[in-house]
């Protein structure tokens, strides 16, 4: 009886330790992701906080060279850079984008976020002020699909 109880407690303890370690590993990106980030962002925080969003590893740093704006960086599980998004000053939007927002949405109160993907043209996520609707536009003021 004592041997059975000891065996049950031992197994339960082992399972609990494994579960805690597994939870920790799930919140830590693979080494390939960390190496890719450190290689691309040498001048920034090399001990970032990571989380998983839409099956991609995400971290955020503050870009001190550009007005202390937040920059979000995304990598896939193999360490390939998927996307960078940065807060953007609405005044610095291309004139065609600002004109289109004014003409189509009659909106002057909005926030902007620039999204860059390797090998593709950057575009902007515009959050319209009154109803928080997101609109995506390229630098020519044409709406684009974001997926």
Give a short summary of the structure.
By secondary structure, the protein is of the alpha+beta class.
Overview of this structure, please?
This protein is an alpha+beta fold and 147 residues long. The protein has helices at residues 2-26, 31-40, 95-105, and strands at 51-53, 56-63, 69-75, 81-88, 110-116, 123-128, 134-138. The longest helix is centred in the N-terminal third of the chain and has 25 residues, at 2-26. Strand 6 and strand 7 (134-138) form a beta hairpin. A seven-stranded antiparallel sheet has the order 1-2-3-4-5-6-7, with helices on one face.
Key structural traits:
147 residues; alpha+beta; seven-stranded antiparallel β-sheet; 3 helices
SS strand fraction: 25-35%
Question: What summary fits the major beta sheet?
Answer: 7 strands, antiparallel
Question: Which blocks of ≥5 consecutive residues have pLDDT under 50?
Answer: none
Q: Please tell me how large the radius of gyration is.
A: 22 Å
Number of helical regions: 3
What's the N-to-C terminus distance?
A: 59 Å
What is the molecular shape? elongated
Strand order of the largest sheet: 1-2-3-4-5-6-7
Would you tell me the overall average pLDDT? 85
Q: How many runs of DSSP E, i.e. beta strands?
A: 7
Could you state the order of secondary-structure elements as H and E? HHEEEEHEEE
Helix content estimate: 25-40%
Structural class: alpha+beta
List the helices and strands and how they pair.
Elements: H1 2-26, H2 31-40, E1 51-53, E2 56-63, E3 69-75, E4 81-88, H3 95-105, E5 110-116, E6 123-128, E7 134-138
Antiparallel strand pairs: 1-2, 2-3, 3-4, 4-5, 5-6, 6-7
